[in-house]
């Protein structure tokens, strides 16, 4: 098969000059000449020269700039992969326009598996062809002899066996003497079978599943929200939608917030469909990603489970997207292209015209409002599946039950833990703070250890013997003497992190098997997966963890969840603080009692009457949402109003501030829009760059993007030293 034969099936659209979107922060597609021997169409993935480099770009739609074709450079190569279809290209344009990002940067997210563009990536061996070289050197002779057995060889294997350099082998490949063996790629996973193991659903599950299956059959744009308490069996319900989509011959994307830690999910999928889904996340090996990319594009892969970036895979027949834990902040990317994968999933579905399913025990305020207004279909699962009951939740008033001196665990929690361990069950202590202590200071002079690059304290990691910045990665061995006054051994750790709680727990329960789980643990994802499995298998008594343990896991023996500091996160001044805390606490306490044993959740708090604590303890989600929604509406905050933030940063503080002020002055006069700031951003210094922030607020109907574009256009000329980042729908504000 020649390289271009793929395209002769569709009508070849040969043009002299085409726009090509290159994976760069360019505002528009660049023009390239198409040589006669190449045929391209909109969506073709091509190689083009860009400055001194060669890059993979996409032939775009629309007119190319009317420039003199003689001055243009030429498309060098058309990759043998399916072109990005019109819906995918519209999606890229849409995301770019919405987030105010250069389309090239968005396209880059869709092209994140370069080698997958060409089947040569699938060369699985070399074999002797019919041609013989004109000039037969000794070395070449040995290669011919070795390869003469008709077997397929790898390049290095053949060179080694023949006792020649790999260059000799390459030379023979160039001459056509050795032929690459193109093995059709093995599918990354066998196709899932929709009828492999159908569960018997509870009546509530069956009703919800039926609605979803109908939506899938309609094959039109719709959004459904499965709003079901932890353990209600939401996964089982949306699996029915997945099965329906597979039966309809459509591909499915399941978005998960923490793909690296979802072994249990993969296993459940296997049980239901007879195979695992293909996985897509940034930690996957490049070879795996190339295959998944290509097979999503060719349609060989039917279901992908992935992190937010999987949304930009060029699926050929996508017909359903599931967004599990739709409220999770991990869906927001805050880097280069600032986008929310849940929201963009809905956009992708509306462009192509297929259903989206959101699932959560604690939906985002945005999704709840959309459901209340009838824009989304709300499917409720108010009870846990089967025998399992929700944990019995209560607060521990820390003013009345204070911990022992130097400790952080209340006697109430300690007693309950003893009882739990005595029953042979497990406890989880949750504290959303990595390391040993969030702040270290000198008892003598009061010196505080601060990051030299960020406005942040250095966090002590005692297990590693270091103090580190959680924003830029700066770190140093924990000093013995104060750098300010020189006093030895007078540094004190202030406040707890998970390591410190582990130390306390260890003293309290010397015989218990204790494990600390946080994302900075040594050993990475593999080790985390092993430890999560160990917990599920009952090899651990007390788990001490950050939000990593909050998500989705099923630990059958876990019957006690203690929240070490339920107030953490409530006091940061962010209007979303209550919502986030509610979601996090709901998620964590939801780890308890998932298999029918009586279970408890205890929240250590200094504000037991706070609405968030009340909502969690009473289980009265409805009044919490009503109150939060009313508050947002009153303040004109999302989803009732629109927000965007503009962050201006520079190494020089004055440069950043000047530019931010200039933008403020440049904002068009518009009575509907409010511009706040510039003020120092919540983290005023990050990685050596000073940051100022402008907040733009407007009504729901405002043309926020138009306003931002006008502001930037009329703003000060960009200087090299200044960086401007725009965040439409910021998650914290
Ligand atoms: P959620 O995602 O709502 O927290 P899960 O889907 O994880 O809940 O379900 C909770 C537990 O109940 C899991 O162990 C799951 O295997 C089990 N479960 C849910 N629905 C069914 C069903 N219909 N049949 C058998 N087991 C089920
Ligand atoms: Zn730092």
TrEMBL record:
Zn(2+) 1 binds at residues 442, 445, 482, 485. Its EC number is 5.6.2.4. One of its GO terms (cellular component) is primosome complex. Residues 215-381 form the Helicase ATP-binding domain. It catalyses: ATP + H2O = ADP + phosphate + H(+); Couples ATP hydrolysis with the unwinding of duplex DNA by translocating in the 3'-5' direction. Binds 2 zinc ions per subunit. Gene3D superfamilies: P-loop containing nucleotide triphosphate hydrolases, PriA, 3(prime) DNA-binding domain. GO terms for molecular function: 3'-5' DNA helicase activity; ATP binding; ATP hydrolysis activity; DNA binding; zinc ion binding. InterPro entries: DEAD/DEAH_box_helicase_dom, Helicase_ATP-bd, Helicase_C-like, P-loop_NTPase, PriA, PriA_3primeBD, PriA_3primeBD_sf, PriA_C. It comes from the Bacteria. It is an enzyme of class 5 (isomerase). GO terms for biological process: DNA recombination; DNA replication initiation; DNA replication, synthesis of primer; double-strand break repair. Keywords: ATP-binding, DNA replication, DNA-binding, Helicase, Hydrolase, Isomerase, Metal-binding, Nucleotide-binding, Primosome, Zinc. Zn(2+) 2 binds at residues 451, 454, 469, 472. Its cofactor is Zn(2+). Belongs to the helicase family. PriA subfamily. Component of the replication restart primosome. Initiates the restart of stalled replication forks, which reloads the replicative helicase on sites other than the origin of replication. Recognizes and binds to abandoned replication forks and remodels them to uncover a helicase loading site. Promotes assembly of the primosome at these replication forks. This is Replication restart protein PriA. It comes from Pararhizobium mangrovi.
